[in-house]
Design goal:
Blueprint lengths: L1 H17 L14 E4 L2 E2 L8 E3 L7 H10 L5 E8 L3 E7 L9 E2 L3 E6 L16 E3 L3 H14 L7
Antiparallel strand pairs: 1-7, 2-6, 3-5, 3-8, 4-5, 4-7
Length: 154
Amino acid sequence: MLKLALFLALFTTVVAWNRQNHFGNPCYLCSCFTVYTDRDVAVPLRPYAMAIDGYDTTEDRCLATCQRDKRCRAAVYGMVGGRSVFTCEFYERFNTKSAPVYTTYVNMYMKRSSECQLSISHLSSVEMIPADNSSLKRRAKLEKLIGRKNPFLG
């Protein structure tokens, strides 16, 4: 009985280790993108699509979807909190001079001009929906907070 319990524990650990999740797995497709860590797209720009369920999306699935989509020029993935927890947004255009705005726990990924040599066949695509105003509201709120004066700094 003890051997069976140890076998089941080992088997579940191996299955959980190889499962795609939000934490701990290194980014597989990051070499195919220019990565801006702790950056988000500036407020006036609106994504053309976003993941229907950001919580079920991983970083690599978000990037693989952008890689497959011809319209996608950049993707934003990160932990945004609230009810959504995670977000995955797709942009077809943006201004590189004003686009990267500092935002914690959110990364911006721009497609490289060269073709990605990594295989993405094992990564499923994210189910996308047309973007709503939730992305704009989230970014406008963060930009407003960044502009506020810290009362503890005097």
